[in-house]
Hints:
Layout: E1 2-5, E2 14-17, E3 27-37, H1 39-46, E4 62-69, E5 81-84, E6 87-88, H2 94-97, E7 108-109, E8 121-125, E9 129-131, H3 138-157, E10 165-169, H4 173-184, E11 189-194, H5 197-205, E12 209-212, H6 218-225, E13 231-236, H7 241-249, E14 251-259, H8 271-275, E15 281-284, H9 293-301, E16 313-315, H10 319-330, E17 338-340
Parallel strand pairs: 10-11, 10-13, 11-12, 13-14, 14-15, 16-17
Antiparallel strand pairs: 1-2, 3-4, 3-8, 3-17, 4-5, 5-9, 6-7
The structure holds zinc ion (ZN) (2 copies).
The site of one zinc ion has 5 residues, from loops.
Amino acid sequence: MRALRLVEQGKPLVEMDLDLPGVGPHDLLVRVRAAGICHSDAHYRDGTVPLKTLPITPGHEVAGVVERTGEAVRGFKQGDRICLHYMATCGCCGHCDRGNEQFCITGQMIGNNRDGGYAEYIVMPERSAFLLPHEIPFEHGAIMMCSSATSLHALRKARLAAGETVAVFGAGGLGTSAIQLARCLGALEVFAVDIRQGKLEAAQSYGAIPVDAADGDPVEKIKQLTGGRGVDVALELVGSPKTMEQSFRCLAVQGRAAVAGLGDEPFEIRPYRDLLGREAEVIGVSDHLASEIPQLLEWACRGRLDLSRAVTRTVPLDAAAVNAVLDDLGRFGGDIRAVITP
Ligand SMILES: [Zn+2]
Ligand SMILES: [Zn+2]
């Protein structure tokens, strides 16, 4: 099968011919129909996020069709449309038992330490697969597995309650989902902060109030727009120290900032003004849970999570085309989300 491989970090992906992966008793062999190109893939390629397993096939946002099933598989059959939770987990360690399977002690993430979806086929345990309803296109099913799922997990970690206000920092792939999911969960108002006009317009079309951070301090603007109060929940989806600081400085009393943007540069918290004085919380968000996926699929089926404007481009399974998308993501380019359709 054809696959795009990351052989060395800091170098472009290369196209290779590989043997079909082996199918264990509980595994599905899946023909990839859509694989999202995520900002984290750009970090993996450029080396900002070190990878232990190389060479590897990137791609953790995958939807496709079951081609073959292992002999112990009961829940799926050949021809089923599915999407894949990006973690392969054991289901029986202490973390899995407590429902925190993103910390599974033998957990593997596709496209990170297990071969992912930038290929014609992928193998995954059936416990990581979910039937993809016919109403949902493969491209949408794929990107839901990362951006939408992580946005929902962030909103749940931030304990968003109906009637509260939300600020979303970064109106890209995660942000467009976060805006809609916040509304599904009953948010009264959602502010979308970005520096790109196109992304602010997309956010507005999803019902958010745009806040242009290229034109003045977004914290001041959010304070003005909320009568000086600030927001109950802020989601940081960019990963820069500046947006992390802005995300908790715009909080109301007892507000919660959930930080999901990948970054490792330190940021500054003023203990009294930012935290104690308002009983504010800063919460780290890592990945998401398989148990959150059925809810997403339900909302997508009913059109309450609409990703039709989130997928801005499709590209073939071609090294030059995919490397160009990753270059663009590295420069925070205009695309919200490009998807490989092999
Ligand atoms: Zn992703
Ligand atoms: Zn486990």
